[in-house]
Amino acid sequence: MCIVHYNERREGEIFVELTFETVYNALAKEFSDNGLWSHLETPREICGIKFIDPNGTDYQEHVLYIGDINTLEQASKLPDNTNLLLISRGDGEERQEDFRFREDAQSLQRIEKTDNTNIIIVHSKEKQDISGEIFNFIQDLFIGNYKMMNNSAELLNSLIKGRGLKYVVKIGTKILNKPIVLIDSSFKVLAHSENRPVQDPLWNNYIANGYCSYEFIQTVKHNQTLQKLNKNNTPQLITCEASQGLKMVKNIKIKDKIAGYVIIFEDEGSFSKEDSKLISQLSNVLAEEMKKHDYYKNSTGLMYENLLLDLLDDNISSEQTVRARVQNTPCSFGENLYLIAISLGQNLPNHYCVDYYREQVKTMFPHCKAIYYQDYLLVLLDLPEEKMGKEILDKLINFLENNGLWAAVSDKFSSIMEFKRQFLKVKNTLEFGQLLLKGKKDSSANMNQDTDKLLFYESYKPYDLISTFNGQTDLMDYCHSGVIELQFYDQENGTAYLRCLQEYLNTNQNINEAAEKLYIHRNTMRNRISKIIDMTELNLENSQTIFHLQLSLLILEYLRKAT
């Protein structure tokens, strides 16, 4: 038997020690037929054990001293700052035994009060000397404790090496000598013991697929033991109709939220108390390793989060897999989907800000799905109508202005399979906005519903198209020759004919409106347009020419800002 005190002082910290109190608790279980009495003055770690020397003992603070109560019974004062385990021997008669034991305890209490001394008295009923038996028992506690400390050190070393969850599971398998599977809160398989394969065919299928089946998840969710597991931090032995064999399971918590489960399979040997302690330590080490990843650090533990993250990271290759994963999540995805990407890059001093912004968004849109990814808070809206209403947009703009944030909105899409493609589009929109709108509120990119804080992908599609070809070819080759001629003339003569042409086209060739935007007289504007036509021989009544000119101006603006 080995009882080791395991203390989770705070989240993620692993601490193993043998204390005076745990020695007493272990003795109380092993020697339950004997009478025990204790006086705990000061909580103290125990580092060694010695017998009391009748000729005098140099007492040390963290050593437990074992001896007969008669050794110290006549002392006027017990030693200070130490730990004593004293044996009280009976005389064979039950009443006299009980009386003698109580008398010994009371006599010790009457001795002059010690300073920080802890005392345990164990009663031996038959006048037998059980000091050797007790000494060996406590020595076994130390041996078990040393083994636990060595295993803890190996687990911590696996964390320090930073080789990921699979390596930590590999070390855990080596220590426990049992197969291990690690799953997250959405029942996705994150790692498993390749050095000690799982023998359960059902779990081998889950490992191969990378996630548990819908039927299994539903069965497990109604398992009372699992419900108990979710409510406390102690490992639980679980049996399940859906899977053969006994398993020991421990939840993994990050910020008091369940991030996953570590599952130990019984395999050839039964579970021991040491296994329970080790799986608790393994759980904490895995939690620390998972915290290194933004997803687990900022996750709220909802099942849809992992599905969306897997879509973004290309961890799901087929639509069939997506449908199966969607079935496992207690939510649905409709056909009027919009993705909002809120940029948090410069407004994120710590991960608590993610939680703060996410809760605000969920208050505004209670049925939204929100995840944190690559410095963006991604908000997936599933709307009953095809278009975003003014009420939604007003709420969103107010939130962005109050928090000094800005965001981009995707086009409507109807399949969750498009989630990554829509993310790349809104991400590009924010990047284009930084390039094209910074310090230029009247940019030609600021179209449609765009505000300073909220951008729409619809407004930036031409720039997204242009950026697709940038680097693959010289974009200037696609500019209208008249635009290139005006740009060269302006550079040589210090004029602004190209700007005049741009505003003239942006205002649908309205001389008065274009003149107001450039702060010049309408006659001046009219003369400049005539000059431009004379120089370039442009036909501004031809729709194809107008389109080519506008595309050319967009290319020039993009290249000017991007370089």
From TrEMBL:
Pfam families, from UniProt?
HTH_30
Give the protein's recorded name: Putative transcriptional regulator, PucR family
* Ranges where the PucR C-terminal helix-turn-helix domain occurs: 497-555
The organism's place on the tree of life at top rank = Bacteria
